[in-house]
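Page 37, continued from 36.
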């Protein structure tokens, strides 16, 4: 998708998920599970030009990391958050282009974009269980929730 290293990490994460669908292998355990030979299905030809160490501390994608480490149960909150933000974007679009008014104010849209960029599932990301990445993400989420509550877009 992005590079051979990313493809291999994504494949390892998917293989780990397939072996542990419901609960995953546990937070921050990708690095240990990835080293096991049962996930190392690549031959020497596939390793040309790649560092011999095919594992990393995380698979560099939030969705794949959550699926591998926490399974489907741990990924559900992420999916709910993503779909909720998508719902707000769709509402804003329909209000603007079909009703000629706004659903959210500019500050909320700005924070919504910040959260969406932080959880966008289709590009490489950092470690979901990293403190500073979560600080940035959850600060935006907290501010967004505060603004939405003030606008009465959330139920009390």
């Amino acid at each position: 998708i992005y590079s051979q290293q990313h493809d291999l990490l994504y494949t390892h994460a998917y293989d780990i998920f397939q072996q542990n669908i419901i609960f995953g292998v546990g937070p921050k355990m990708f690095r240990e599970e990835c080293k096991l030979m049962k996930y190392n299905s690549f031959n020497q030809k596939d390793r040309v030009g790649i560092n011999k160490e095919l594992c990393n501390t995380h698979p560099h994608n939030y969705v794949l990391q959550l699926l591998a480490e926490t399974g489907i149960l741990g990924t559900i909150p992420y999916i709910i958050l993503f779909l909720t933000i998508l719902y707000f974007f769709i509402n804003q679009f329909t209000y603007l282009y079909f009703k000629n008014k706004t659903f959210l104010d500019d500050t909320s849209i700005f924070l919504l974009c910040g959260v969406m960029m932080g959880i966008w599932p289709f590009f490489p990301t950092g470690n979901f269980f990293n403190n500073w990445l979560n600080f940035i993400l959850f600060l935006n989420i907290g501010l967004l929730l505060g603004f939405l509550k003030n606008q009465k877009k959330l139920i009390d």
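Confidence is low (pLDDT under 50) at residues 47-52. Flag for discussion at group meeting. The CA atoms of residues 17 and 70 lie 9 Å apart.
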